[in-house]
Write a structure and sequence with these properties.
- The protein is of the alpha+beta class.
- It has a five-stranded mixed β-sheet, with helices on one face. Strands 5-4-7-6 form a four-stranded antiparallel β-sheet, with helices on both faces. Strands 1-8 form a two-stranded antiparallel sheet.
- The chain is rod-shaped.
């Protein structure tokens, strides 16, 4: 994997580098050839004028007067401004006129001397010359205009086309070879530096996929955000794994407890049924009624456990349909409190009920909301002493708030975090607490199904407050 990523990145870098080099070489070659083909001389111009055009157009200042050739006064001023000089020659190359001519300039030129002077400048006079001509009534005169080196310089380039082409090809091949080598070297070094963290990241992901969640990477470099994400993912997976293990442990304990809770009443049912069916005993009517009542109570207890399991599963899988109706919450909750106080087992409990108004309506499933309040109240009863004081209050704010508070033992922090988990039984559970252990989880799931929430606050030795918001 490491080698594959590195090779692919090197190929990409090399291709990009070669394309850039090719474009640069092509552009440079085009410029060189264009200038070489279109210009046989390279002239450095000063003051933004063309000396060749100036020389050719200067013929208008040449005048003939009684057979004598000279220049106009305006021409003299122009030459002075340009720091230039002029020399006029007849057909034989002999000087017939000059103006501002340097002392060492020849007075007679052969054709070869003129060509040489034009091509290589006049070194003795430190001048760059340009040549033109003018005809006067069939008589042709040539004239030379010279510019000082400090103003105008000329470099004439001569080259062999075939040799130049071969040299360019060799230069391109050599340059490409060097550039490819450099590109490979730096591409490899750069790709190694860039892909090495990627390989580490891939290995980290592989490690996480294999169930190893104790990763912690230093969050630096260009992959800082990725390292941070991996660390967060590792932490989250580790937390989820610990939570899963705790849940599995609670589930195992819950299964053991629920099995015990079912076996105990089943043993009673089986025992009393065997006694009643035995011909060895002669029971009175009162005894038979007592045994039948015990069997009925134990059967009801088992049925409640099964109902809890069924309801919890349906709520967890969101397979329950709410029967929503417009209900007055006040009499609904008051009825639950009255039912508990009318029960002989809880008739001596101190439960107070109050509401900020008599009519507080809400679209709810009446049976399920009764189940919520019942579960929460029984949770407050079974987890505290008999002298606990419980207060139930209903308020109407932006939403409906049902508060159940007690001054009992309170709940430990570790129990508080898990109180709505399925299968969880808190450490305050006493011998009188029997049941599925799903009561609080069922209450929480029912409220969430109504798009509500349950908040709980508790302090050891002070009491607990549970708020249902619908």
């Amino acid at each position: 994997m490491n080698l594959k990523i590195t090779i692919r990145f090197i190929i990409t870098v090399v291709l990009i580098t070669m394309i850039v080099i090719f474009i640069n070489l092509s552009l440079g070659l085009f410029i060189i050839l264009n200038r070489s083909i279109n210009n046989t001389s390279i002239v450095s111009e000063v003051n933004h004028f063309s000396p060749e055009d100036f020389t050719n157009e200067f013929d208008e200042y040449l005048i003939e007067d009684n057979g004598n050739i000279h220049i106009h006064k305006d021409g003299e001023k122009i030459l002075e401004k340009r720091e230039a000089w002029i020399q006029i020659l007849d057909n034989n190359g002999t000087e017939v006129y000059n103006y501002r001519k340097p002392p060492k300039v020849n007075e007679h030129y052969t054709p070869m001397e003129l060509v040489h002077a034009y091509k290589y400048s006049l070194e003795d006079s430190m001048s760059t010359i340009f040549i033109s001509e003018k005809d006067f009534d069939g008589r042709n005169y040539s004239y030379i205009i010279g510019f000082p080196f400090k103003k105008i310089k000329r470099n004439v380039i001569s080259y062999d086309i075939d040799k130049l082409t071969n040299n360019i090809k060799k230069g391109i091949y050599t340059l490409l070879t060097i550039d490819i080598f450099i590109a490979l070297l730096f591409g490899y070094l750069f790709s190694r530096r860039l892909t090495k963290p990627l390989v580490s990241i891939i290995n980290d992901i592989k490690t996480l996929s294999e169930g190893e969640y104790n990763l912690q990477r230093e969050e630096i470099g260009i992959y800082k955000q990725i390292y941070k994400t991996i660390n967060n993912l590792s932490s989250k997976l580790r937390s989820n794994e610990e939570e899963r293990k705790n849940l599995d442990k609670m589930r195992e304990e819950w299964i053991s407890n629920i099995s015990h809770d079912i076996k105990t009443p089943l043993a009673s049912i089986k025992g009393y049924a065997e006694v009643l069916s035995s011909e060895e005993y002669d029971f009175t009517k009162a005894e038979m009624e007592e045994y039948a009542r015990i069997i009925e109570d134990k059967s009801d207890y088992i049925r409640e456990l099964i109902d809890d399991l069924n309801l919890s599963t349906r709520l967890k899988n969101k397979a329950i349909t709410l029967n929503l109706k417009r209900i007055n919450i006040v009499p609904l909750v008051r009825g639950v409190v009255i039912d508990i106080l009318n029960d002989s087992k809880t008739s001596n409990m101190d439960i107070k009920f109050s509401a900020t108004r008599e009519v507080i309506e809400k679209d709810v499933d009446e049976i399920l909301i009764k189940r919520v309040v019942t579960n929460l109240l029984y949770n407050a009863i079974v987890h505290n002493d008999e002298n606990v004081a419980i207060e139930v209050k209903i308020e109407k704010k932006d939403k409906v708030h049902i508060l159940i508070t007690d001054n009992g033992k309170g709940i430990k922090e570790e129990d508080l975090k898990n109180i709505f988990e399925r299968y969880y039984r808190g450490t305050n559970t006493g011998t009188k607490h029997k049941g599925s252990g799903l009561g609080m989880a069922i209450a929480n799931d029912i409220v969430k199904a109504h798009d509500g929430s349950i908040n709980i606050k508790s302090q050891l030795g002070v009491g607990t407050e549970i708020e249902v918001i619908l």
